[in-house]
Every structure is written in structure tokens, then in C-alpha cells.
């Protein structure tokens, strides 16, 4: 298939720069009648919405730090401190720094909502974002140069998944409702089409890439999962779910280990070396509602799933078929909202997810805010909530950069960049 050229648009990108030392009002100042719900840096006192496998989740308060990070490092150097305690000290220090995080840049480049995010693997200030109209933005917010913008086809061109090419980071993979999974560059050239559908009733909803095995995996809206090599050769194409495959993820440490999530209310785990048909999965993890995402932790030892209503689950490699813990959390699905997906922090055992307050949620309180929630991956406790009164919409996508110090969020048409407030840090 001949490469296609996608024209660039001349649309002006709206980028808002905010001084880092500008103080944002806290949720308590904004909503005086609200209960102690969203004070930045502190956990909520809500009760659990359903039975939880983690003891003490109902309190959801941050445990006091037992020692400073300096003391933890000193004890570790002397051989008196274990590595887990050192890691916990580092994580507590980072959670404390989250209290000073503010939105310092904002952009609204699209005429339809943002649907996917991907950080550049080696440039910590470079972000790729796809939209429901098929538009794609490459934004290096660390410099003042104009971002690269690739115009999509409009309605029906939604970008459902994006990954930078690990073998050439000037290129990226994209799956779309246009009916393709493709490799292209940021000049708008389509370099290779990996999958394409012959009908408008089938499109691709997710993708992942492995640089070690040099494979591309993608899932479609009727339950099929396709595995290809980097040259575009199809290795197999099987119907692994009864309904749409919303997410596919390769384990970062064992890239032959694949997780697939579906609206058929299951997450399945596969060994790519042993796939023979739809019944050859290693584990099937049933959920009570359709599932938006299934993400492996950076060390590959845990799996994080997000359903379409009010539950986040964590599974462990020690027992994949039984959840280690359940976190009640409101993030219900809505047709005109980009599905909310929880993700891992790249360095710490922390979970980040956007909140969509639900009046039917038992712990819902008056004036509950649409925050970005950070949970501890071990205990399931709320560690911190981020909120900006000038960006109070529903934040569907959240992802930290590979360095773990900057958070990108997608809120409707807007892209938000959160970073540490330098003035707050000095204080």
C-alpha cells in the first residue's frame, strides 16, 4: 500500500503559560460548604463503597512518615535499613512534593476531545496527543517553538491508541476508528499500514509495541486481537473476546506476556508463545462491569484494571486470578466522555486516576470536585488529590512522564501539564 500524506493544518494552537509561583485556591476555599474532601495533599475520610480486600481502606488517610528520607538513606548506607523501607521513604517524599503540583501549561489545539496520550520515551518534556477527530499533536512544552500538528479526517477518525516507535522515536504507531493501525512520522507521512478493515463497521481500539520481540499487537471493536512483527507480517489474528477489546498491554519485563481488556467484562492474560485459539488464555479475570484498561506496573509484577463504573483493581503476579485489592472509585462511563483509565507512576507504587463524581456512589458528598486522585498501590489508600479551580472539568486521561516528575492530563479539549510549584517547594 502506497504511503499517504496527511496535510498539516494552519490552526493556531492555544497555549497558556502560568507562573509557577502563582498560588491556586484550594478546594476548601472554592467550595466553603464542602466537607473535608479535596484538600491537596491529604486523603479523604470517605468510607468504602464496597467490600475491600485491603484492611483499613475505609479510612483512606495518609500514614505519618516514620522518618525523613535523609535518615532512611543513612540507615541504608549503614546496612541497617532494608531496601523496601528506603523505597517507602522515597515514595513518601515524592507524595509530599505532590502537594505543590500546579498546572503551569495548558493547550487546547483540537476541535474535538483528546482521546489518547503518549510520552516520548527519552525527551521528558515531549508529549504526543491524539483527538477524536484524528488530529495529532507533538508538543515539546519545554521550548517555545510551535508544536507539530497533523490534521485528521474529522468525524470517524478518532485516535484510540498511540505509542512512539522504540526503534525510531521520530515515528509513532497509532490505532484509529478510521480502520487502521499504522506507523507514521510527524511530517504526516504514513510509513506502513499494519492492519486495515474493509468495512466501516470494524475499527481498532488499542495497541502496544515491544522493542525486544519487535512485535505490534492491536485489538478491534468486535473482539479480535492481531499480532504482527515490525515488518508488518501478520503472525496471528484471533477473536479473543466476545466484544470490543478496549485495551492491550505487553508486560514490560516479559514481553511475551499479554493482557487484554474488553467490554465483555473480562481481562485475559496470554502467553504469546502458546496462543492457539480463544481458549488458550492463561487466566481470565471476571469483572462486574465492562473494563476500560488493564496496565502492567513498570516492574511487570502487578496489573491495574479500570472498569466503566466504580472500581479499580490490582492483581499480583503471585496470584493473577485473584485481585490483591479493590479500590472503590467513581469514574462511570459516558458516551461523550473519553473513557477514564487509571495508570501507574513509572518509579513509585502509585496509581493516578481522574474522578467523575457520582451521586449514586455511597460516599459521594455535596460539592464533590473533579480531582485527579493518587492512591498507594500497596494499601489502596488515597495519598493526594490534585485540583485546579480554573480547570474543573472531568479529567479522563492522566500519565506521568518517564522521569516521573511531570503529569499530563486530558480534560475534554484541553491538555494540562502539572508540575511542581517552585515557590511552594522553597516554602
UniProtKB/TrEMBL annotation:
<keyword id="KW-0677">Repeat</keyword>
<dbReference type="InterPro" id="IPR036322">
    <property type="entry name" value="WD40_repeat_dom_sf"/>
</dbReference>
<feature type="repeat" description="WD">
    <location>
        <begin position="238"/>
        <end position="280"/>
    </location>
</feature>
<dbReference type="InterPro" id="IPR033312">
    <property type="entry name" value="DDB2"/>
</dbReference>
<keyword id="KW-0539">Nucleus</keyword>
<keyword id="KW-0833">Ubl conjugation pathway</keyword>
<dbReference type="Pfam" id="PF00400">
    <property type="entry name" value="WD40"/>
</dbReference>
<protein>
    <recommendedName>
        <fullName>DNA damage-binding protein 2</fullName>
    </recommendedName>
</protein>
<feature type="compositionally biased region" description="Basic and acidic residues">
    <location>
        <begin position="26"/>
        <end position="36"/>
    </location>
</feature>
<keyword id="KW-0234">DNA repair</keyword>
<keyword id="KW-0853">WD repeat</keyword>
<dbReference type="InterPro" id="IPR015943">
    <property type="entry name" value="WD40/YVTN_repeat-like_dom_sf"/>
</dbReference>
<keyword id="KW-0238">DNA-binding</keyword>
<dbReference type="InterPro" id="IPR001680">
    <property type="entry name" value="WD40_rpt"/>
</dbReference>
<comment type="similarity">
    <text>Belongs to the WD repeat DDB2/WDR76 family.</text>
</comment>
<dbReference type="InterPro" id="IPR019775">
    <property type="entry name" value="WD40_repeat_CS"/>
</dbReference>
<feature type="compositionally biased region" description="Basic and acidic residues">
    <location>
        <begin position="1"/>
        <end position="13"/>
    </location>
</feature>
<feature type="region of interest" description="Disordered">
    <location>
        <begin position="1"/>
        <end position="50"/>
    </location>
</feature>
<keyword id="KW-0227">DNA damage</keyword>
Amino acid at each position: 500500500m502506497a504511503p499517504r500524506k496527511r496535510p498539516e493544518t494552519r490552526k493556531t494552537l492555544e497555549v497558556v503559560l502560568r507562573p509557577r509561583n502563582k498560588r491556586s485556591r484550594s478546594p476548601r476555599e472554592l467550595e466553603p460548604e464542602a466537607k473535608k474532601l479535596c484538600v491537596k495533599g491529604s486523603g479523604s475520610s470517605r468510607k468504602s463503597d464496597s467490600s475491600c480486600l485491603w484492611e483499613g481502606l475505609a479510612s483512606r488517610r495518609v500514614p505519618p512518615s516514620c522518618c525523613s528520607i535523609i535518615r532512611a538513606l543513612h540507615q541504608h548506607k549503614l546496612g541497617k535499613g532494608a531496601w523496601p523501607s528506603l523505597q517507602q521513604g522515597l515514595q513518601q517524599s515524592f507524595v509530599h512534593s505532590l502537594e505543590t503540583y500546579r498546572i503551569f501549561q495548558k493547550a487546547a489545539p483540537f476541535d474535538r476531545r483528546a482521546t489518547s496520550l503518549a510520552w516520548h520515551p527519552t525527551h521528558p518534556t515531549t508529549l504526543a496527543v491524539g483527538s477524536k477527530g484524528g488530529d495529532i499533536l507533538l508538543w515539546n512544552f519545554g521550548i517555545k517553538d510551535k508544536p507539530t500538528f497533523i490534521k485528521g479526517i474529522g468525524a470517524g477518525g478518532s485516535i484510540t491508541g498511540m505509542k512512539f516507535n522504540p526503534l525510531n522515536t521520530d515515528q509513532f504507531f497509532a490505532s484509529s476508528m478510521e480502520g487502521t493501525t499504522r506507523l507514521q512520522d510527524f511530517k504526516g507521512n504514513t510509513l506502513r499500514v499494519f492492519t486495515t478493515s474493509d468495512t466501516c463497521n470494524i475499527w481498532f481500539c488499542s495497541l502496544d509495541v515491544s522493542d525486544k520481540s519487535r512485535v505490534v499487537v492491536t485489538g478491534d471493536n468486535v473482539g479480535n486481537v492481531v499480532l504482527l512483527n515490525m515488518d508488518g507480517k501478520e503472525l496471528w489474528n484471533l477473536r479473543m473476546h466476545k466484544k470490543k477489546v478496549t485495551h492491550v498491554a505487553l508486560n514490560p519485563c516479559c514481553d511475551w506476556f499479554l493482557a487484554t481488556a474488553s467490554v465483555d467484562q473480562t481481562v485475559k492474560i496470554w502467553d504469546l508463545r502458546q496462543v492457539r485459539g480463544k481458549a488458550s488464555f492463561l487466566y481470565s479475570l471476571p469483572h462486574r462491569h465492562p473494563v476500560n484498561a488493564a496496565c502492567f506496573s513498570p516492574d511487570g509484577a502487578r496489573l491495574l484494571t479500570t472498569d466503566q463504573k466504580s472500581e479499580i483493581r490490582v492483581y499480583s503476579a503471585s496470584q493473577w486470578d485473584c485481585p490483591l485489592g479493590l479500590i472503590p472509585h467513581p469514574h462511570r462511563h459516558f458516551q461523550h466522555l473519553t473513557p477514564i483509565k487509571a495508570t501507574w507512576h513509572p518509579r513509585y507504587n502509585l496509581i493516578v486516576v481522574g474522578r467523575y463524581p457520582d451521586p449514586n456512589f455511597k460516599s459521594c458528598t455535596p460539592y464533590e470536585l473533579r480531582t485527579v486522585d493518587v492512591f498507594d498501590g500497596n494499601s489502596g489508600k488515597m495519598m493526594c488529590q490534585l485540583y485546579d479551580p480554573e480547570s474543573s472539568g472531568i479529567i479522563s486521561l492522566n500519565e506521568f512522564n518517564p522521569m516521573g516528575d511531570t503529569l499530563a492530563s486530558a480534560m475534554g479539549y484541553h491538555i494540562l501539564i502539572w508540575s511542581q510549584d517552585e515557590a511552594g517547594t522553597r516554602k
